[in-house]
Each structure stands twice: as C-alpha cells, then as structure tokens.
Design goal:
Blueprint lengths: L1 E7 L10 H4 L6 E2 L2 E2 H11 L4 E6 L3 H15 L2 E6 L8 H5 L1 H4 L4 E8 L2 E3 L3 H11 L3 E7 L7 E5 L5 E8 L8 E10 L13 H11 L3 E5 L4 E3 L3 H12 L2 H7 L13 E2 L5 E3 L4 E2 L4 E2 L3 E3 L4 E2 L4 E3 L1 E3 L4 E2 L4 E3 L2 E2 L4 E2 L4 E3 L3 E2 L4 E2 L4 E3 L1 E3 L4 E2 L8 E3 L1
Parallel strand pairs: 1-4, 1-6, 4-5, 8-12, 14-17, 15-18, 16-19, 17-20, 18-21, 19-22, 20-23, 21-24, 22-25, 23-26, 24-27, 25-28, 26-29, 27-30, 28-31, 30-32
Antiparallel strand pairs: 2-3, 6-11, 7-13, 8-11, 9-10, 10-12
Bound molecules: guanosine-5'-diphosphate-alpha-D-mannose and magnesium ion.
EC number: 2.7.7.13
Enzyme class: transferase
Keywords: GTP-binding, Nucleotide-binding, Transferase
C-alpha cells in the first residue's frame, strides 16, 4: 500500500502581507522553520513516500527552497504548477497522474496554512476502518463563520451529514481543520477546472454518505493572517509537540542574571541570538537566527525573524518583526503590527497595529490602528 499527499500551496497569501511580499506563504517561518516543513515532517511520519506541492504563485522560489528538505526528509517532492488558480479541488485533478498511480490507495490533502498536532497516522487508521471515500479532521472554534462547518449525526466524529463553507447563520461550531485523507476513488468526482472542494465536492460526498469526520486532539490554528499567526504561535509554544521537538532550543536564563527569560519553555531561540543586559523576553517569543535584542529591551508574544535588531529599551508586544528589520531605541511596537523585510522604525516611535511594507522606514508615531505604510 502506498500513501501520498498533496499540499495546497497556491494562493497569494494576501492576508499575510507584508511578509508574503518577500516569501511565499508556506516558506514563512513558524517557530523557526517553514510552515510547510512542519507538514512535511508530519506526512513523513505517517508513511508518505511522495508529496505534491500544488503551486500557482512563485513556483521557482518554492522549488529552490525545498531541495534541501527533500534530501533531509528523504521524501520525493513534486510540483504541480497551475496556469490559472484551480481552487482547492482542481489541483487534485491536475495531480491525478501522481495521486492515482503506482498502487497508491490513499492520499492526504493539507491546506498549507494550518498548524496543529497533525495526528496523521491516527487519521489514516480511522479512515481505513470506515472504508468510505474521505475523512476530514475537525476541531471546535468560537467563531465558525470564517471556516467550513461540519455537522455530524450526534455531534461526534463519524458520518458527516452536512458540510457548509463559511456559513452566514450558525449551523455548528465544529469546523474543517483543512486536513483530509482520501481513498483514490475520490478522484473520479473531481474535474480539471477551478473548483472549490469545500463548496462543490464535500456537500456531494456528504449527500452520498462518503465523508467522515475525525476530531483533532490538541491545538489547531489557521495561521494565514497576522493576528491568528500570533495566536497560533502561543498555542504552539505551550503544546506537547513543541515540548517534544524543540527542548534543545528553549531559552535559558543566564547564570549571571544579565537578562531575564519569562517562562523559558515558551521562548524559542534560533542560532547566534544576542540578548543585551537587562532585557526581558517572554512569555511566547520566537527569535530567529542572528537576532539581536538590545539592553533593557522587552519582547513578549512576538516572533522576530532572522537578522532583525530590537534596539535598547524598545518594547515589542504581540507583533511580527520581519527579516533584517530594526526597531529603534525606546520605541514601542504593539497590537498585531507586522514589519515587512528590511523595515526600520526610528527611535522613540510608537507603532500600533500597523503593517509596514518591505524596505520602508517609520519615522513618527502611528497611533490609529489598521494603517499600512507603503
Ligand atoms: N494550488 C492552489 N490553487 N492552492 C490554493 C488555491 C488555488 O487556486 N486557492 C487556495 N489555495 C490554498 C491556500 O493556499 C490554502 O493553503 C488552502 O488552499 C485553503 O485556502 P484559504 O484561502 O486559506 O482558505 P480559508 O482559510 O479561507 O478556508 C479553508 O481553510 C479552513 C481551515 O483553515 C477551508 O478549507 C475551510 O473549510 C477551512 O475551515
Ligand atoms: Mg486559510
């Protein structure tokens, strides 16, 4: 038996701008490795031998960046490049010759922007046992209106009665986690044209009683927009997955007490990070490789990407600081602010819920939320 996988990578990642101006969404680091690498690791663990990346934007960048991971994880990665966006189902038809070939019996499909405890081996086991065409992983959320909602007979896992994408009125709070496993037979339902799996395929599979739900254990988040990325980061940093996989990179309080880490296991450090005297870091912080934190600076609930510099006495709170950017002395960056690549905030400036496009400088306070500096 062969198991393959397809990751839905396409889309412009508009909601993660300005980061996606520099890098395709799946390559953006989450907890110091590309989002897609978290998924490749999980797929490999579940026995996948070949992974198709369904791309329609910047394919060459993906291809170049993924080479080393193909070697590292010893898994074949193929690129299926769309001439026009084929939606969330069309890419399965485009990759039919791979997904349906060499005695493949099952394949996983993942949205590229979901992060969780991916219990993919459990999902596959469950799917094999019920023997129908598809299984969706589901999770509970407070606001189901942004997602696909799954309704089952008794509100438990099992046969799906109804699938409603982005419902306008409340139908339930158990949602599609963007992680599926299918028997290859499902390919017979999908035509090669732009198609939404959520709007056009799942409702029919539910009608035919060929679609099952399995409850996901542990945390889950769609990290496709800044606020959710930060929430997802916090969930991840308190998860078992993080404790299991990253313990060698947890920040430690220095013996000389020169700076302070709050909740060490929720602070993840890249290589060659420098932290100045009197700085206070944590909880829930990820510092990428070559990040510098100046004396007396304060960083909490934030991700700082590779080679960025937070200068003396600055505060970074609930924000994302892009690659090679700098935050000036005594400045304050807060409230889901995202600084793109190579941006610079001058000294003594307050930036509140702002997106700053790559290579820009912020020279004065921006207090009104929701602004874009371009
Ligand atoms: N190859 C390809 N081509 N991929 C695409 C295309 C396309 O034309 N359009 C979207 N994708 C990819 C996106 O990059 C993403 O990984 C995935 O398909 C889902 O698209 P999103 O735009 O992120 O959808 P969403 O977040 O609004 O909703 C989806 O995810 C939710 C869970 O996060 C749906 O699947 C919902 O039902 C689900 O609850
Ligand atoms: Mg999404």
């Amino acid at each position: 038996m062969k198991v393959k996988a397809l990751i839905l990578v396409g889309g412009y990642g508009t909601r993660l701008r300005p980061l996606t101006f520099s890098t395709a969404k799946p390559l953006i680091h989450f907890a110091n490795k590309p989002i897609v690498v978290h998924q490749i690791e999980a797929l490999k663990k579940a026995g996948c031998t070949e992974i198709v990346l369904a791309v329609n934007y910047k394919p060459q960048e993906m291809i170049d960046a993924m080479k080393k991971y193909e070697e590292k994880y010893q898994v074949k990665i193929t690129y299926s490049v769309e001439n026009e966006p084929l939606g969330t189902a069309g890419p399965l038809a485009l990759a039919r010759d791979i997904l349906g070939a060499d005695e493949t019996e099952y394949f996983f499909v993942l949205n590229s922007d979901v992060i969780c405890e991916y219990s993919l081996d459990e999902l596959l086991e469950y799917h094999k046992n019920h023997g129908k065409e598809g299984t969706i992983m589901v999770t509970k959320v407070d606001d189901p209106s942004k997602y696909g909602v799954v309704v089952t007979q008794d509100g438990k896992q099992g046969e799906i009665e109804k699938f409603v994408e982005k419902p306008k009125t409340f139908v339930g709070d158990r949602i599609n986690a963007g992680i599926y496993v299918f028997s290859t037979k499902v390919l017979e339902r999908i035509e090669l044209r732009p198609t939404s799996i959520e709007r056009e395929i799942f409702p029919l599979m539910a009608r035919d009683k060929e679609l099952y739900a399995m409850d996901l254990k542990g945390f889950w988040m769609d990290i496709g927009q800044p606020k959710d990325y930060i929430t997802g980061m916090c969930m991840y940093l308190s998860s078992d997955k993080h404790l299991r996989e990253n313990s060698q990179h947890f920040a430690k309080n220095p013996e000389d007490g020169s700076y302070k880490i709050i909740n060490e296991s929720t602070v993840l450090l890249g290589e060659n990070v420098k932290i100045g005297r009197g700085a206070v870091i944590g909880p829930n912080v990820v510092l990428g490789d070559n990040v510098t934190i100046g004396e007396g600076a304060r960083v909490t609930r934030s991700t700082i990407f590779e080679s960025a510099h937070v200068k003396e006495h600055a505060l970074v709170k609930s924000s994302i600081i892009g690659w090679k950017s700098s935050v000036g002395k005594w400045s304050r960056i807060a409230n889901d602010t995202v600084l793109g690549e190579d941006t610079h905030v001058s000294d003594e400036v307050f930036v509140n819920n702002v997106k700053v496009l790559p290579h820009k400088t912020v020279g004065e306070d921006i207090l009104e939320p929701g602004q874009i500096v371009m």
